[in-house]
């Protein structure tokens, strides 16, 4: 039986009025890959992620997660996908545990506490389990965002700049955690502005610029070609 790509993006375009945010993007990411999506501000990274998460409808084209069409099979596709968004948006009056229970409920999962406890332990959140979200530091909130993406055990995880604005120590521990998820078999897609992060973690990298993929290759090939993977896709 042929295996589906973890993520399949076929001829996706997105227009916002006159603005072409994505322009005929096609891409296949294989199960188990650690994939980097790079590009300058406004390149279309978040738009592409929003389309994969079913939050934004493409003007043209199709996307699928583990073979499930995002448009036609939204529930199935969404179940396969964990998204760590850029913005730290939470109910400030929920505790960490309630936030994770609420997210479990969204996916129709009951009695998820054992798994929630395990996720919190792995992300060093256990001591904050009963703290209100509004009382947490930005770095802790970011950990909760990662935890939230994992409650339904998705095989594919997309992280939109998960280390933006976090200190070096937390960045390192998030890197380790995300690497472990990949070693455990999860497909990981990471968008980042930190080039050393992409170079250190990603097996392949696509560079988006003005809504188009301008480079797509293994990190090793991009490094040997350009010496450094520049986020504007033009090398050194
Ligand atoms: P960043 O690195 O700054 O997060 P990005 O690569 O994620 O950038 P997007 O957020 O996808 O880029 O934005 C792509 C383009 O689409 C930008 O020009 C942005 O202003 C525009 N855009 C995004 N969302 C909307 C919207 N809802 N309405 C109108 N224009 C939008």
TrEMBL record:
- On the tree of life, the source organism's domain of life is Bacteria
What the entry lists under SMART domains is as follows: AAA
The residue ranges of the ABC transporter domain are 7-235
Q: Which Gene3D superfamilies match?
A: P-loop containing nucleotide triphosphate hydrolases
For the keyword Membrane, the answer is yes
> Which keywords appear in this protein's UniProt record, sorted alphabetically?
ATP-binding, Cell inner membrane, Cell membrane, Membrane, Nucleotide-binding, Transport
Q: What is this protein called?
A: ABC transporter domain-containing protein
The species this protein belongs to is: Polynucleobacter yangtzensis
Its lineage reads: Bacteria, Pseudomonadati, Pseudomonadota, Betaproteobacteria, Burkholderiales
């Amino acid at each position: 039986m042929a295996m589906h790509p973890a993520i399949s993006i076929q001829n996706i375009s997105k227009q916002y009025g006159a603005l072409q945010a994505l322009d005929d993007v096609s891409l296949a990411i294989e199960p188990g890959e650690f994939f980097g999506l790079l590009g300058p501000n406004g390149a279309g990274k978040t738009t592409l992620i929003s389309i994969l998460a079913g939050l934004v409808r493409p003007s043209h084209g199709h996307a699928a997660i583990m073979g499930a069409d995002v448009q036609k099979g939204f529930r199935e596709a969404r179940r396969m996908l964990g998204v760590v968004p850029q913005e730290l948006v939470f109910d400030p009056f929920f505790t960490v545990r309630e936030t994770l229970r609420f997210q479990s409920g969204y996916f129709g999962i009951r009695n998820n506490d054992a798994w929630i406890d395990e996720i919190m332990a792995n992300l060093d959140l256990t001591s904050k389990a009963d703290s209100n979200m509004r009382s947490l530091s930005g770095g802790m909130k970011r950990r909760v965002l990662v935890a939230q993406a994992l409650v339904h055990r998705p095989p594919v995880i997309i992280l939109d700049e998960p280390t933006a604005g976090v200190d070096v120590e937390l960045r390192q521990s998030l890197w380790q955690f995300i690497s472990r998820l990949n070693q455990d078999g999860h497909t990981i897609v990471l968008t980042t502005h930190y080039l050393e992060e992409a170079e250190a973690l990603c097996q392949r990298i696509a560079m988006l610029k003005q809504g188009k993929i301008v480079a797509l290759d293994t990190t090793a090939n991009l490094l040997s070609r350009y010496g450094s993977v520049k986020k504007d896709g033009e090398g050194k």
